[in-house]
Amino acid sequence: MIVLGIETTCDETAAxxxxxxxxxxxxxxxxxxLSQISEHAEFGGVVPEIAARAHVEVLDAIIARAMNExxxxxxxxxxxxxxxGPGLIGGVMVGLTTAKxxxxxxxxxxxxxxxxxxxxxxxxLTDATPFPYCLFLASGGHTQILGVLGVGDYLRLGGTVxxxxxxAFDKTAKLLGLGYPGGPQVEKEAAHGDPERFALPRPMAGRxxxxxxxxxxxxxxxxxxxxxxxxxxxxxxxxxxxxxxxVAEVVMDRLRxxxxxxxxxxxxxxxxxxxxxxxxxxxxxxxLHRVAFEIGISLVAPPPALCTDNGAMIAxxxxxxxxxxxxxPLSVAPRARWPLEEVAKPAQPVAAK
Length: 353
Ligand code: KG4
Ligand code: ZN
Fold this sequence. Notes:
The chain is an alpha/beta fold. The chain is globular and about 65 Å long. It has a five-stranded mixed β-sheet with strand order 3-2-1-4-5, with helices on both faces. Strands 8-7-6-9-10 form a five-stranded mixed β-sheet, with helices on both faces.
């Protein structure tokens, strides 16, 4: 089956066409992403109103390009999928309404995809990863450890109680006068810094749940920076290196606990999978490899372009749901908040392919 997917929940306007074969394999026919980073950079973060307007302006052209590059025509589509949340509501409305219009005009099924579910299922598009696997999702808006047991079947093992990891990177960068988005800048600075110079905390380490807390770490960093202000270039590099090391160690500790909870509740995971922009960070990747190695499983890391927000993941999640007969009425509402536990699952458990 062939599905068009639309993503507008944050600051990327994206559309893609993806094919799913009957045996569950995926192929990306086109994947067009337009980042709004430059429009938000001067504000040091995403401005919802600017984002929504920017989506309206470019979405039609992005969809046309995705259809064109895929050599697809609307009549040949099997479904139209859009991220219906969670995310910035103005943007979500733009993408979902557009998908509804296309579905209505061309008499195609609509699939309202949960953005987090799309991140969770991407490893099946890229690597045909079998269920059940453990997902570490870390982006600017989300930090979660999840059991991915089947389409629509997710077990939340842990999450952040305050800032997302990407958000902590972004705030650290802002504090140190580096650009937006902060993650890549902090990583670049950290490469020539001393990770041992500042004794930053490892929040939540050793706790029996698999939750994260990043705001204390960010505050500790600010206090260290204030103590030695004005900062030299070497100070900035050392602060970034110490921060990144603290985050990587926290990720290892929290994931070890998350994987332990997974084994207790589900059994052995097939793989450890990562998703979200933060997974592009090499120090964090190394930490993930190490944790996976310790328990004898592999790390599946989709290419960075599919780890960050994109249309292919929405189209793929749409195709996975459509294959199970999970479609949505045109009356489906966009949702700013939409926990994975509230995603509809198949009426009958389906043997995973
Ligand atoms: O998944 P994503 O592209 O967008 C959403 O937030 O949904 O993730 C963006 C986040 C930003 O907070 C960015 O700073 C962070 O991922 N990020 C990184 C790196 N590249 C992107 N964080 C740490 N190291 C990186 N290399
Ligand atoms: Zn995302």
